[in-house]
Write a structure and sequence with these properties.
Elements: E1 12-19, H1 27-35, E2 40-41, E3 46-51, E4 59-65, E5 71-75, H2 83-93, E6 102-113, H3 117-121, E7 124-126, E8 132-134, E9 137-140, E10 143-146, E11 148-153, E12 156-162, H4 163-178, H5 186-190, E13 199-207, E14 233-235, H6 250-265, H7 269-279, H8 284-290, H9 304-319
Antiparallel strand pairs: 1-5, 1-6, 2-3, 3-4, 4-5, 6-13, 7-14, 8-11, 9-10, 11-12, 12-13
Length: about 325
């Protein structure tokens, strides 16, 4: 039967590490790569990229950067394994102490059940993130909705997307590739019901020179449960009912309604605050806080702190037993 399950959905969703140019391949890997040069394909920034999955290693090898001559190992399907296996995969490729290697990119995530993607769009912003954009749309029950939206720009962004829709796409591909072979059920494979469940994945991608020193090497990833990747998210939950104009200054009421329409016109809170900052000498965040009651309410809304706790609970399980006693860490990054 195709598929193994139930699959543990990834909270460390992606990991890429830098390997110094002077590092040597392990004897087995070096021999295979020497005799199978066709494993490599063209790359703009590296001499070549090799998919190592046919060799039994779930990773992509980016060989010899054109600028620095360093290598990059891109680990695949990291959510299904612990930190120890991530280290073992790297050391299958290079004869190095993987714990000392620099983290080039890491994606950290939290899954939120019961709140659709579009519910976040009008009520969330990332501090110091200048842009927000939608990526793709999908039709659901005759309505056009946003499947994915992001805050910020690569390589350092927040990403919100429909996790069930993504898994349904993966499952459809799996069944097509299996042809006439039996495939495990969606729920058995992924741990979620295929229909009737809403799960929004909130993902923080950290890369380039913005990986903070607390998690800057593979060995330091044991500190991830105490590192908050969502601390710069601001979620304004709005009010479940329209503010009463008789309970406040009428001018303030009109301003609040106007701000709500402004947020809708700009395609969400992030873009609205950015433009308001530009037009009002940096007062966008103050407007958002003052008139937050006029924003649409988010059913089952969570604060950024609660999202972090969801993430922390899951990443503790993923890293166990490698996580040491709790240590308070700062979480400042770009």
């Amino acid at each position: 039967m195709v598929g193994v399950g139930p699959m543990r959905l990834p909270l460390i969703d992606k990991l890429e590490v830098r390997v110094p140019a002077e590092a040597r391949y392990t004897p087995d890997m070096g021999e295979v790569l020497h005799w199978q040069p066709d494993l490599f394909r063209y790359s703009r920034f590296y001499l070549g990229i090799a998919d190592l999955r046919p060799l039994g290693v779930d990773a992509l090898l980016h060989q010899c950067a054109r600028a620095t001559r360093d290598h990059k190992v891109e680990l695949l399907d990291t959510g299904a394994i612990g930190l120890g296996e991530m280290i073992a995969r790297i050391e299958q490729i290079f004869a190095v102490d993987a714990r000392s290697l620099e983290v080039m990119r890491i994606d950290l995530a939290a899954d939120i059940q019961g709140v659709p993607v579009h519910a976040f769009k009008g009520n969330v912003r990332g501090k110091w993130k200048r842009s927000a954009r939608e990526i793709g749309r999908y039709s659901m029950v005759g309505k056009l909705g946003v499947e994915t939206f992001t805050l910020g720009k690569r390589p350092n962004i927040y990403r919100f997307y429909n996790k069930i829709a993504e898994l349904q796409h993966q499952y459809a591909l799996l069944k097509r590739r299996a042809k006439d072979n039996p495939v495990r059920s969606f729920a058995d494979l992924y741990g979620y019901a295929e229909k009737g469940l809403i799960v929004t994945r909130i993902e923080r991608q950290i890369g380039s020179n913005c990986v903070p020193k607390e998690i800057a090497t593979v060995g330091k990833l044991v500190h991830l449960p105490d590192f908050d990747p969502f601390h710069r998210l601001q979620i304004l939950v709005g009010s479940a009912k329209e503010p009463d104009p008789e309970s406040m200054d009428f001018t303030a009421y009109l301003k609040g309604r106007g701000f709500r329409e402004f947020v809708i016109e700009q395609g969400g809170l992030q873009n609205a605050v950015r433009l308001a900052n530009k037009l009002s000498k940096g007062n966008g965040a103050r407007f958002a806080k003052t008139f937050s009651n006029f924003l649409p309410s988010v059913e089952n809304a969570l604060t950024a702190e609660q999202i972090f706790l969801r993430y922390r609970e899951s990443v503790l399980k993923q890293l166990a037993p490698a996580v040491p006693a709790r240590e308070e860490l700062s979480s400042r990054f770009c």
